[in-house]
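BUG: 3D viewer hangs when loading the predicted structure for this chain

Environment: internal workstation, default settings.
Expected: structure renders.
Actual: progress bar stalls at 90%.

Input used:
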Amino acid sequence: MSYTQMRSYSSHIAINLATRRLSFYEGDRLTRTYPVGVGKTATPTPVGDFTVVVKIINPGGGLGSRWMGLSIPSGNYGIHGTNNPSSIGGYVSNGCIRMYNQDIEELFPKVQIGTPVVIRLGTIGDKSGNNLIQNQAGVHVHIVQTGETLWKIAARYGKTLDYLLSVNNINNPDIIFPGQQIVIPE
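Structure tokens produced before the viewer hung:
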């Protein structure tokens, strides 16, 4: 999918595993942030750029009231509700992203099949306006600004495009958007 094709979607989702927050964007505007439960150490949530591939109402089991399956090739991962609301905010799942049922019910109708979902480690945001931040592990993270390309980001930090693609698990350099985190290895 090209950047132009991705931009044809009116929304995208960004998940920050460090803060355990899911952010929903309409265009370039952040419209809502939700607390989530994510994968535990033994079964971490995969990091990368994915899309929503299936949506199910009342999927059954412990998946709560809604399921949005993701295009993660290494397994059956999704964003879903939960019958265990006390798990929200923790590292508790087998890799899926858990939401309160009322939150997934609010989000579900706003998300289309094909909606981009970006899952990253690290801390998003820097109140000083600096778009290069450092998370708890000492990894630098660049927050993509409007008009930036991955080629420009790679050149700015003296890295090759292929290296940034590999480190960030990005398949297509045309698919980045404002607010997305790009890990910049030292």
